[in-house]
Fold these 2 entries.
Entry 1:
Amino acid sequence: MGIKLSYSSIESYKTCPLQYKLSKIDKIEPEGTTIEAFMGTLVHETLEKLYTDLINGKLDTLRELEEFYTNEWRLRWNPEKVKIVKRNYTPENYFDVGKNCISGYYRKFYPFNQALPLWVEKDFTIDLGEGIEITGVIDRVDRAEKGKYEIHDYKTTGTLPDKDWCEENEQLGIYQLALQEQFDDVEEVRLIWHYLRFDTEREVKRSPEQLNMLKEKLRTTALEILNQKEFEPKKSVLCDWCQYWKHCPLKKHALKLEDFGPEEISEEEGFQLATRYGELHEKIRELEEELEAVKKKLLEYARANKYLAVVGRDCEIKIREYDNVELPEKNSPEYLAIKNEIMAAGLTDELMEIDRFKLSSRVKNAQLPASLMSAVKQFCGISKYSKFYFSQKKKEYTL
Ligand code: SF4
């Protein structure tokens, strides 16, 4: 059995195995798209037009590109199908972001003669053997001079990744593998992400060793997916942008409620049960806080009166206080000093790895040789902790 993977399908699998299964195995069409993806696609198509026209001898003006972007947006905009997750932004905000990405890029690289564009939106397939194929689409490949290539990828995301992310990310390494299969004279490849919102490029290079390791990693991932039995849903912040809520057991209920009015929601059985659970959970948290406060006062009361048990209505609370030895950091000079004393005292069997509880118990019962006891006092903190033992009693005190 074979498998076809792309950088984005691998990312989808890592983000959420269920989302990967629904999209790539079950081949279920997503419900629509997100506005980020909608805007990103149009920016990509606009830059595709720019470079395709360039290859055909035409240098588009910025106005032409902006018109293309605007017309496509108007033609394809469908509020029913494009989801806006971040409700504090309007479609116009996203439209402007995309337009600024295009104009910023245009002004920076005009007249686009830095290198010769060879591929624009180019499909590829890499055969890794054993039925494993890696596919994808490269935004653009340029040749700067003989043997020197550049792979360009445009990003319209709202976050600029740090350099560590770029060093570890697999996307452009995969594209380099595809490039090297097609050109025999590749000596050097610059891998460049264009973070268009930030007018910033991130550039990396991959050595032959890194590319070999990448191939191995891709094979391992492919085999892991092939052998996967359960594609579990994995909740994350990205769920808000997922278009498979209808098929996801973690989101089906939330989706069902989206179609209900306020009254219907409050009468829905699951909503009522979950609401009650939430109320009880909150009550328990409040009670636990109250219990801690009562314990503190009870301890003070018992200490002041030298009681070890305090009686209440139909119950009795026994209170015990223990010494708690706080060991110094493992293998610190203080820790080793105590260990030496343990060895000198011949307690290695019992305390060789310094068991805090056993040591605490021996401190409490004064069962340590004097020199070890003094080392413990010198190097360890000794705190107190108390335990409360609750027992219900038959009615003895009727108040
Ligand atoms: S909503 Fe979240 S958990 Fe469910 S399929 Fe989508 S990404 Fe996975």
Entry 2:
Amino acid sequence: MLNKRHCNIPIFIPQKACPHQCIYCNQRYISGQQTAPTLSEVQQTIERYLSTAEKDTDIQVAFFGGTFTGLDIEEQKNYLETVKPYITSGRIQSVRLSTRPDYINTEILDILKHYNVTDIELGAQSLDKEVLRFSERGHTAQDVEHASQLIRSYGFNLGLQMMIGLPKDTPEKSISTAEKIVSLGAVSSRIYPTLVIDRTPLSAM
Ligand code: SF4
């Protein structure tokens, strides 16, 4: 039997709720989007994608960009409530989101579970403490390990992003990070090269 076709409906929440300025990041600039979408814009985006989706497609709403779980709890719920009717009616199957490892706790995971979030992707970037520090990530490797264990204990699919070529990174450190990502039980990993984006601290360096 053929696997079902999969479609993501991307909703960008640019750098909203980020407590730090990682030295390489300027989400507003790279996404071309200055502000977080309103609830009606989220609805419009979903409707637009659904209008062209083929039958029998597994459809997931994906909140990319900033730190979803760093938003006020009410704001998180409002976004998830907007998606809920589509899940109830079976037009959308699940939700995924990206966030930071230091913004995961049991209260947040309970809410995400309730709203059919199935996949949580953490920006780990590196599991080397020096790389994390020089990239001004504002969290530690232990934060990544702890959040990963918690996410898996709830039965979510764990994704861990890594970024190669950050300040103080080496090929050996990148390989070690990749090995740790596997051992933490990630079912997916997006590997980004470090690009020097204009209007970032990295570009100033
Ligand atoms: S946590 Fe993510 S979105 Fe926020 S500044 Fe860092 S890389 Fe950008």
